[in-house]
Write a structure and sequence with these properties.
This is Nucleoside triphosphate pyrophosphohydrolase. It holds the Pfam family PRA-PH. InterPro entries: MSMEG_1276-like_NTP-PPase_dom, PRib-ATP_PPHydrolase-like. It comes from Ectobacillus ponti. By secondary structure, this protein is mainly α. The chain has a domain of 66 residues. It is 58% helix and 0% strand. Helix 2 packs antiparallel against helix 3. The longest helix is centred in the middle third of the chain and has 21 residues. The protein is elongated, with a radius of gyration of 19 Å.
């Protein structure tokens, strides 16, 4: 019997039951929830970095986006607020579309 001890998506217990299995779960408190979301974001980022093709990469990016939605809510916002902040920062500092790789900065 595998032991996971990790945050899972909301419907996973039903998926497990549909497969004729049982599972043990508990509901996390707010602080532990944020901690587990952070762990989950690292797990999904690692999976994205290891993705072998575009399709797998997009699946992992979708998982990361789901985590971003949840984390935004934990911090009293929604993903639209995160997007507004992203847009403001892009206007002030730019995005990454130009693929600029900074080598070094020297004092004048």
């Amino acid at each position: 019997m595998p032991i996971y001890n990790k945050l899972v998506r909301d419907h996973i217990p039903q998926v497990i039951a549909k497969d004729g299995k049982t599972c043990t779960t508990r509901i996390l408190g707010d602080k532990e929830y944020i901690q587990e979301l952070k762990k989950k974001s690292q797990e999904e980022l690692t999976e994205y970095l290891q993705a072998a093709d575009d399709s797998s990469a997009l699946e992992e990016l979708a998982d990361l986006l789901e985590i971003l939605h949840a984390l935004a809510k934990c911090h009293g916002a929604d993903v639209e607020e995160v997007e507004r902040i992203r847009q403001r920062k892009a206007e002030e500092r730019g995005g990454f579309a130009e693929k600029i790789f900074l080598i070094e900065v020297k004092d004048a």
